[in-house]
TrEMBL record:
InterPro entries (alphabetical): MetI-like, MetI-like_sf
Membrane-spanning ranges: 36-57, 99-121, 192-209, 229-249, 261-280
CC terms in the record's Gene Ontology section: plasma membrane
Name of this chain's protein: Phosphonate ABC transporter, permease protein PhnE
Localization of this protein: Cell membrane
Keywords, ordered alphabetically: Cell membrane, Membrane, Transmembrane, Transmembrane helix, Transport
Any one GO biological process: transmembrane transport
Provenance organism: Agrilactobacillus composti DSM 18527 = JCM 14202
Domain ABC transmembrane type-1 per the UniProt entry, residue ranges: 95-279
Lineage, broadest ranks: Bacteria, Bacillati, Bacillota, Bacilli, Lactobacillales
Keyword Repeat tagged: no
Matches recorded under PANTHER family: ABC TRANSPORT SYSTEM PERMEASE PROTEIN P69 (PTHR30043:SF1), PHOSPHONATES TRANSPORT SYSTEM PERMEASE PROTEIN (PTHR30043)
């Protein structure tokens, strides 16, 4: 118990002197229970993994040969890359298609999310409206992007149309959440002062919300673009959406040409480095 508690207890009746000590003991016990719960959950997960792992390993599995084959494939991919049966222009075209898919879904998602973000912000919209919008968007975010793409592919068929809708759907839900959080960070006094002067809703949006939160909106939008590029590569293989993801799928699972897989991986890594450089420049300029 802290010294200040002891000094304060000297001037309190007998029933109240023990309260700080009792509260401290309760906090310690609560922390012990939380720590014990975490340990039990982690222990259960570890035990489940240990018990289930043998059932996943084939009966005639040879770990040594499997590791040797794995490292041989890595050597082929990263130390001996080549174009395979494709041309460099074809690989660049596939990369461009994935980039275009990410750009398109990010732009559409940002435009739609801006409107939904205004409806989801509790300092702008009625409580019932913001609660409904946030609940719907939380449900959409809870389902992975690839699942949405596969859902749309049932009705539209495998291809870029399902990929565009699936990525846009999840982008809207993601950006609505972060846009609404950015709008809610605006000081209520500023909004109330403008409302008192008779400013309309559009004046609040374009004279206060957009200028004040523009840096955060741009940062979150660029982050979503990075996510959409990674998803575009994934759905290119899983949903037949084309692009460099589809080329990776064909080279690795159909032709087993790990030389070409290495080239494709290097192209994706090169674009990821470009994105990281642009992201760093954006953060630096926005902070200034």
């Amino acid at each position: 118990m802290r010294k200040i508690d002891v000094l304060e207890n000297q001037n309190l009746p007998g029933d109240f002197k023990a309260r700080p000590k009792t509260i401290s003991i309760l906090k310690i016990k609560l922390q012990d229970h939380q720590r014990l719960s975490i340990y039990l959950i982690l222990g259960s997960l570890f035990l489940t993994t240990v018990l289930a792992l043998p059932t996943l390993i084939p009966a005639k599995f040879n770990l040594a040969s499997a590791l040797a084959g794995f490292f041989d494939n890595l050597k082929i991919m990263f130390l001996q890359p080549n174009l395979g049966d494709d041309t460099f222009q074809a690989l660049l075209k596939g990369l461009g298609q994935s980039i275009a898919l990410a750009v398109l879904t990010t732009i559409i998602g940002a435009i739609l999310a801006f409107g939904f973000g205004l409806m989801a912000a509790r300092n702008l919209a009625p409580v019932w409206l913001s609660t409904i919008v946030q609940s719907v968007m939380a449900f959409i975010r809870a389902i992975p992007t690839i699942i949405w793409v596969l859902i749309y592919s049932i009705t539209l068929g495998l291809g870029p149309n399902a990929a565009v809708l699936g990525l846009t759907f999840h982008s809207v839900a993601y950006l609505t959440k972060v846009y609404a959080d950015s709008f809610e960070d605006i000081a209520p006094e500023v909004l109330n002062a403008l409302r008192a002067t008779g400013a309309g809703f559009l004046a609040l949006v374009f004279q206060v919300l957009v200028p004040s939160s523009m840096k955060r909106l741009l940062s979150w939008t660029f982050i979503r673009f990075e996510i959409n590029f990674a998803d575009a590569v994934a759905v290119g293989a899983a949903a037949g959406a084309g692009g460099i993801g589809y080329q990776l799928f064909m080279a690795s699972n159909i032709y087993f040409n790990f030389h070409e897989v290495g080239t494709l991986v290097y192209l994706v890594l090169a674009f990821a480095l470009v994105l990281e450089f642009v992201s760093y420049q954006m953060r630096t300029r926005l902070m200034k």
